[in-house]
């Protein structure tokens, strides 16, 4: 990923664009084929020399053209014919973003592969589900991981859509009118670069496309943040249903030798803030003056490479985190039992209403048993059986059958099928 954003790679793409334009013009009979061939065969550049020239010209494309022209000779007069700098810059950027998107797509696929393994392995391992951080009803750890698998399936679709929207080049001149370069040349060059020609451009490709790309990176980073946060909570000492891998020799605190901290999840949550911040800067780049100003350029030189490189790192790191998770089913079971069966409250409530009890009356009866369970020593089922307004409707033996985990896991298989697992 880092190599995509080097000066060397950028200049090589610039040179390919300039060469393809010459070849396109030659195919249309606008310049001699021998001259286009000379550009292809002779054109070379020196990154160090270009950067040195730029100190004088204060213009990167001019410095590049001067350096390349020296290697080509007289035929270099056809280079940059009818083009403006943004033709090269924006088309190159599209190529770079497509290359970056391809790497990110592969990262997401690798992450989903690891998540799928965990989902299948722990498909029926019970744990408590939580809402507001408080115990709700049982789920399985496999379902939690299947949810993660599904979320990053959407991330993959978004990344494909972002790549499609950004895979657009332009070779339309100073204000986008093709005044000095035939649109057919633009079509030929873009096709050879794997891009679509922009339907209509100004001096630049409009920055709503780049903002959309940055927004998708930010959404994916936020999903990483979401799961980093989830794993951090599940590693809390009083929960400890899982924890990050703690390697031999690793240290958790300079002061407290006992510490094993969820530092990877915390790092991912922090880095997601950077990508979201970069997306905001991308939104600011959309509003430019007339056919173009340069205020977006300095911003993009930072946010687009940084966000792509950072998300690549984050996805790879999350994949490693998931692969190395230490899972503790025994603690999941322990936590499931903490509330002494309170999570069966809805099962009793619904059965009462099915048997004709008004919902308000049923709710209040079940809640009385639940509150007694919170403060007392007996489990929820025992408290339920103390209430004649419940046992007169549901016989105690049937109450027992209502309070089982099977009720909650009847549709696990279907949910797995729904997400492609």
Structure explained in plain terms:
With 421 residues, the chain is mainly alpha-helical. The protein has 3 domains: 2-73, Fumarase C, Chain B, domain 1 (Orthogonal Bundle), CATH 1.10.275; 95-167 and 203-335, Fumarase C, Chain A, domain 2 (Up-down Bundle), CATH 1.20.200; 339-416, Fumarase/aspartase (C-terminal domain) (Ribonucleotide Reductase Protein R1, domain 1, Orthogonal Bundle), CATH 1.10.40. Helix content is 63%, strand content 5%. It contains 17 helices and 6 strands. The protein has helices at residues 7-27, 33-42, 47-57, 60-72, 85-121, 141-166, 183-193, 208-234, 263-284, 295-324, 329-337, 345-354, 359-375, 380-384, 388-391, 396-402, 412-418; strands spanning 126-131, 134-140, 168-169, 196-197, 242-243, 326-327. Helix 7 (183-193) links the parallel strand 3 and strand 4. Helix 3 packs across helix 4 and helix 5 runs antiparallel to helix 6. It is elongated.
Q: CATH class of the largest domain, anyone?
A: Mainly Alpha
The largest pleated sheet is described as: 2 strands, antiparallel
| Domains, number | 3
What name is given to the CATH topology of the largest domain? Answer: Fumarase C, Chain A, domain 2
| Helix count from the secondary structure assignment | 17
What proportion of the residues form beta strands (DSSP E)?
under 5%
User: In terms of structural class, how would the helical and strand content be classed?
Assistant: mainly alpha
Count the E strands.
6
CATH homologous superfamily annotation of the largest domain: Fumarase/aspartase (Central domain)
- Assembly form of the protein: single chain
Low-confidence stretches: none
Rg, nearest Å = 31 Å
